[in-house]
Amino acid sequence: MGLTTKHLLGIKDLTKDDISLILQTAEQFKEVLQRPIKKVPSLRDVTIVNLFFENSTRTRISFELAEKRLSADTINFTSSGSSVSKGETLLDTVNNILSMKVDMVVLRHSASGAPHFLAKHIPAAIINAGDGINEHPTQALLDAFSIKEKTGGLEGRKIAIIGDIMHSRVAQSNIYLLNKMGAEITVCGPPTLIPKYIREALSVKVNYNLKETLEWCDVANVLRIQLERQNQVLFSSLREYNLVYGIKRRMLDDLKKDVVIMHPGPMNRGVEIDSDVADSHQSIILQQVENGVAVRMAVLYLLAGGSSSN
Q1: Which of 51, 76, 106, 178 is deepest in the core (most CB within 10 A)?
Q2: Angstrom distance (rounded) from CA 50 to CA 64
């Protein structure tokens, strides 16, 4: 039993069975990560290059650690200080690296569609680690894994995605995945940060009222405001955003239930989420980071041709 695709370009390209297989395999690798010796020889003799053309901390380190835990040989590449700064194209850069006999490429790029472009032109397996405002598939997979682990499943769960939906590749990948797995989704945020087409195109509910959204949901996945992707003023100030859409302890205490709080990071404390919420018993933010390694191990292993049992 294996994946139906050679690459992980986006959740959009995965079947429901693919997603279930990745999550099931991640459970096995999470058990491996609890052992005294956390390393397995699953990808010995497989060479993976991490190509990061955009800044990243969590995703890059998580992939590097996943590769080391699987005993893969890794090459880390960042565009700063490379021939890219001298005008070399993405395809030339990758072909030069592939001439060193690389088997897999983990790519983060500011241009939407960059991983899809590479997949058409090179023989190596491509894993999308985030492309522009398009998708971030491994983040959606680790979010799903974390929700399933915390609540017992995905089907029928009420998930709210709160914040800057317009500029978030995490939101898009999460919506694709949760829809495929039978969850209910509501997006919430200022009208200027929610695309007009989203209700019909992606089959989600839209609510501009944070209190109502929190009363409805089982899980709230809180997104940061991506100021670096905004080329116009979309709300008056970060302070006002926090007053209207920031997740606060008082607000959660007024609910008649415990809502699970998630955040893909990096967090802007005091803007979209207050510290006493991020660090509370309802938060699974650190578990998301931990689960990211297991999920990325599963993706790498399955794309390299591994089966669902270690």
Answers
A1: 106
A2: 8
